[in-house]
Amino acid sequence: MDSNHISEQLAWLIRRHGVEMTHLSGGSHIGAVLSVADIIAVLYAEILHVDAQNPDWDGRDRFILSKGHAGAALYAALAECGFFSTEELKTHYANGSRLSGHVSHHLPGVDFSTGALGHGLSAAVGMALAARQDGKKHRVFAVIGDGECDEGSVWEAALFANHFRLENLVAVIDHNKMQSLDFCENTLELGDLAAKWRAFGWNTIEVDGHDHAQLKKAFDNIDNDRHRPTVVIAHTVKGKGISFMENDILWHYRFPHDGWEYDGAVSALHAVRPEGVVDPYTPEGVPDPEKPGADADIGNDHTMSAGYHPHFFGREAKP
Ligand SMILES: Cc1ncc(C[n+]2csc(CCOP(=O)(O)OP(=O)(O)O)c2C)c(N)n1
Ligand SMILES: [Mg+2]
Fold first, then answer.
1. For the whole model, what pTM was predicted?
2. Residue 132 in contact with residue 168, Cβ under 8 Å?
């Protein structure tokens, strides 16, 4: 089996777990999970030096998912890599769970809690400088969102990393051109992101963030250009892999509800399931219902969908 195939399998499982976890919990951010799934899969299947049996191994590469609202993607990757049981994924967002909605360092394999955007790169910069000063050889990776780049602290960290020539630092930008409520350009113009990072002194590589071969090549080449931090600008699609979620800002906060949303999401994934992967939840898939037409009364409803009827403690809600 070629190596791309293994990362493709992991990416599919991240997407499938992400659908299940947000569906079960009523949790948000499935669009962000689908966007970053390939980046995280390539890192965990191919690039990061980590040991699930010894999560605190001092020589491990450090990884920070700074867009911590996509925590389900990281949790799924860690569970599939053996850091904890995949069964625990079902507790996502539940009271008392270690799998809080945003990334928590209480889990084995997590180096830094995130969720308040704008902190991950600054923490990564500090870890990279500390590694250098201690003569350690591990690398530090941070995945940040493009909307997150609105935070001034990102650019402060970018200046700092260049100043100290932190060649052991890799930032990945999940550049899906959307944030929580709108497209990035309607919220705060980012313009030519690559030109900006180059101007800040970084080794800047642009890739298709869903193309595993391109991602792997970028990560394999970070050491070719010495004495500069590297940023991989990964062009992505928010909601990637489930057509009715792609580029639709609704799916930043909405979760796949019972009915056509959940069934359609699972069916979309089954249509592209890589050879050798078993769906842990619905091995045979689910019937693929017709998506309601635009004239259906749920048309643009952000809270309800066909097939979704709110229950309160098992009783049907009153109209
Ligand atoms: C400091 C801070 N402000 C606001 C939020 C609320 N918030 C959660 S996700 C999000 C949008 C993030 O967009 P982006 O970084 O592009 O991530 P994407 O979901 O597109 O991958 C916002 C504003 C937050 N988590 N932290
Ligand atoms: Mg974004």
1. 0.92
2. yes
